[in-house]
Amino acid sequence: MKKGIIAIIILIVLGVIIGGWYVRTNNMLVDMKGQATKQWANVESSYQRRSDLIGNLVKTVQGAADFERETLTDVIEARAKATSTTIDANNLTAAQLAEFQQAQTGLSSALSRLLVTVERYPELKANQNFLELQSQLEGTENRINVERNRFNDLAGEYNIKIKQIPTNIIASLANFDEMALFASNPGAENAPDVNFDFE
């Protein structure tokens, strides 16, 4: 009789230990995923800031230069595409992230063409509003890079943790899926070809 009671007590203690470990590990994974998801919102906020600034930049450029319509149209269309591509941070897949990144890259490319083409207009380069907007855009691009790196750090730590033993058991039971990370664009490892020949 006493052996049966001891066995039951041991089982109860083991159940409490295992249950406590499950709860602590689950809460840790929820926190890690939540931090990465919150950081994703910071990434989106930085992209939104760039989108808002681009509208002001386009208006300034239109007002100050007899500007090529094609370049402005490209920027406006790329901005519209970039802002229409959204992702649910709680269901962040590699395919969704690639689509989002492609739209943002298109906007970056169009914006770069706009800023290079502006070199033809000395009166625009001297315009204080334009210079301030250009400076704001440069700062925003830096913020975007910082926020993406922070997201990759947090999501990367989470991805590692859900694969570690024994945490991977709980991650599997509680459906904690891997989060997609930002990757460089194809060809980004090559130095850009800068050409200032406007003829």
Automatic annotation (TrEMBL):
TM stretches of this protein: 6-23
InterPro entries (UniProt xref): LemA-like_dom_sf, MamQ_LemA
Annotated compartments: Membrane
GO CC, any one term: membrane
This protein's UniProt keywords: Membrane, Transmembrane, Transmembrane helix
Entry membrane topology: Single-pass membrane protein
Family named by the database record: Belongs to the LemA family.
Entry protein name: LemA family protein
Native source species: Flagellimonas olearia
